[in-house]
């Protein structure tokens, strides 16, 4: 067996182990959601479910799950839209308009992700309480903007850096102003990076649990809180819990599936010059 064959076998084994590590928990979650109530606690476990959808009908009949899905969608879309807007403007300014003193701006943008959420949760709570923004969707959107705007700016800075400066110069020579050159020339070319940044921002906001736990109540509870509240105090309905988790997982799978190509091209944009 030559070295190329050994390398190929090693690569196949590594990919197989990775797929098992990532897909088996997802399969177990979905399978548990499709089991009859008595099958969820059976020992030894049942690997092939009986395709019972009663857990889904029970979960979707819960008003807190439906409201949580709606609240999560509003918060994630709102936070993503604002973060991408300001991130694109910041990236354009840093990569094409910035002076020498702005070179360290990227580090300060990325440093916003270094602090753990627990470090800012209490200040947010106190500030929002004084502004009457606790348990509101606006308050959660503002908190999630702080959560995602750093990574959005960082991705878009690399995307705009991958665009040749001659594009801006040619646009200015043709009579465009800086604003029109941004809207009509650079922004469409940076679209893969924008889609990648928007997808990651949406996923981070949709999956956030900690800020929702601290800053929201009954009126603004999000989908991750619905999963948390599906856990009973005295007993746990594993089927309903798995069904709730699967429903909340569907939007993330759709985003990754629909924008997979844009995610790859956007995250690698600017990695190679020339």
How would you describe what is shown here?
73% of the residues lie in helices and 0% in strands. The chain has 274 residues and is an all-alpha fold. It folds into 2 domains: 3-33; 56-269, Orthogonal Bundle (MetI-like fold). α1 packs across α12 (238-258). The model has no long low-confidence stretch (mean pLDDT 83).
Given helix and strand content, the structural type is: mainly alpha
Unreliable runs: none
Mean pLDDT: 83
Extended strand count = 0
Rounded to an integer in angstroms, the radius of gyration calculated over CA atoms is: 23 Å
Strand content of the residues, in percent?
Answer: under 5%
Shape: globular
Count of individual helical segments: 13
Q: Can you tell me the number of structural domains?
A: 2
InterPro entries: BP-dep_ABC_trans_perm, MetI-like, MetI-like_sf
Transmembrane segments: 12-30, 73-95, 107-131, 137-157, 185-204, 210-231, 238-259
Main location: membrane
Subcellular location: Cell membrane
Set down the secondary structure blueprint:
Layout lengths: L2 H31 L20 H7 L2 H35 L7 H7 L5 H14 L6 H25 L3 H9 L4 H12 L1 H17 L2 H6 L7 H7 L8 H21 L1 H8 L7
């Amino acid at each position: 067996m030559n070295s190329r064959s050994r390398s190929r076998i090693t690569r196949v084994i590594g990919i197989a182990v990775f797929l098992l590590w990532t897909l088996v928990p997802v399969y177990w979650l979905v399978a548990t959601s499709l089991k009859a109530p008595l099958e969820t606690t059976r020992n030894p476990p049942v690997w092939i479910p009986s395709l019972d959808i009663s857990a889904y009908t029970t979960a979707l009949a819960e008003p807190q799950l439906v409201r949580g899905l709606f609240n999560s969608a509003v918060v994630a879309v709102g936070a993503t839209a604002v973060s991408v807007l300001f991130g694109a403007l910041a990236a354009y300014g840093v990569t094409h308009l910035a002076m020498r003193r702005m070179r360290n701006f990227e580090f300060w943008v990325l440093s916003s992700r270094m602090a753990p959420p627990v470090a800012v949760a209490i200040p947010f709570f106190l500030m929002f309480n004084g502004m009457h923004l606790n348990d509101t969707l606006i308050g959660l959107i503002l908190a999630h903007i702080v959560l995602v705007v750093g990574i959005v700016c960082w991705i878009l800075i690399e995307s705009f850096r991958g665009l040749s400066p001659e594009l801006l110069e040619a646009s200015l020579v043709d009579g465009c102003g800086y604003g029109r050159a941004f809207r009509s020339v650079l922004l469409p070319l940076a679209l893969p990076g924008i889609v990648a940044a928007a997808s990651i921002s949406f996923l981070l906001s949709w999956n956030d649990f900690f800020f929702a736990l601290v800053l929201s109540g009954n009126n603004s509870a999000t989908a991750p809180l619905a999963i948390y509240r599906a856990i009973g105090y005295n007993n746990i309905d594993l089927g309903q819990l798995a069904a709730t988790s699967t429903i909340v997982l569907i939007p993330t799978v759709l985003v990754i599936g629909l924008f997979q190509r844009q995610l790859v091209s956007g995250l690698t944009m600017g990695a190679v010059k020339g």
